[in-house]
Design brief:
This protein is mostly helical. It has 13 helices and no strands. The radius of gyration is 22 Å and the shape is globular.
């Protein structure tokens, strides 16, 4: 039976709904971790109040020109907060993705959720594969950009088309190689070439999984963001507790989106790599 994009996406979202209790259990710690690190950074830097100031800004002040910020003027506390947020977000993603890949492809293991989320060699291997994927895509992008720049610098229109082609090609390559991530979560030895061979003729299918699995939750995130902004305006003043609740809600939606993408990739891995049951 041929595999189709929307059949895979439908199966992924049905699984999330059917296993929503497990999804909550698996996502609880990552959501809490990322939200806590974010609110701690906002509190330490005082930047959380800027959110409320922006909402209460008048139209006239919104059009006031601002001097470009020199990177050297960024306070050390803000830099530390950004680094901490990035590390926490990626660590939480890796923990959750590995556990959820295994939850879908293996089923409930005879371990607690805490044990499934515990950081270990499997997570380090997943991180290594993730950065290897990024490195390969960036390297191919650089190798493609250098020769093209020799011919496109004199023609802006040609340069625009060349850059667009490189972006599309990078997206196709990235999507083709994504199967190394579920393989790492399952401790399977699937290399770059193996992933490319498994997805031969399925480039746009993989791109569709990569992008469309996220879209419903991203639309929900936009709607929730507008609702949160409206509620914040009605508060009449800054509230750190409100900000924390908003971050928890935002991260909850983000991890549902991540779960959808992970589940879709896991289903693709099952269909394209794993032997038939």
């Amino acid at each position: 039976m041929p595999i189709t994009l929307f059949a895979t996406l439908g199966k992924a979202y049905r699984f999330l709904w059917d296993e929503r209790r497990d999804l909550f259990a698996y996502a609880f710690l990552p959501v809490l971790l990322v939200s806590f690190i974010q609110i701690a950074g906002l509190w330490l830097t005082g930047d959380w109040q800027l959110f409320f100031e922006a909402l209460s800004a008048t139209p006239e002040s919104a059009h006031t020109p601002h001097r470009p910020l020199d990177p050297r003027e960024i306070p050390a506390a803000d830099i530390a907060a950004m680094v901490a947020n990035a590390i926490a977000a990626f660590a939480a993603y890796a923990m959750f993705a590995v556990a959820w890949f295994r939850r879908y492809l293996i089923g409930p293991e005879s371990t607690t959720v805490g044990a499934a989320m515990r950081w270990g060699q499997r997570q380090w291997r997943f991180v290594a594969r993730f950065f290897m994927l990024i490195f390969v895509v960036l390297l191919l992008g650089v190798l493609a950009t250098l020769p093209l720049s020799l011919f496109t610098n004199a023609n802006p229109i040609l340069d625009m088309f060349a850059r667009t082609a490189i972006v599309i090609a990078s997206l196709l390559v990235t999507a083709r190689l994504l199967l190394i991530l579920p393989a790492a979560a399952l401790d399977h030895n699937l290399g770059i070439r193996d992933a490319a061979n498994a997805t031969a003729g399925k480039s746009w299918y993989m791109v569709g999984l990569y992008l469309f699995s996220l879209l419903p939750m991203l639309f929900a995130l936009i709607i929730i963001g507008q609702i949160i902004a409206g509620l914040a305006i009605g508060l009449g003043g800054p509230s750190l507790s409100f900000m924390f609740v908003a971050l928890l809600l935002q991260q909850s939606i983000m991890f549902v989106a991540i779960a959808a993408q992970v589940t879709a990739l896991a289903e693709a891995y099952r269909q394209l790599v794993l032997p038939p049951a």
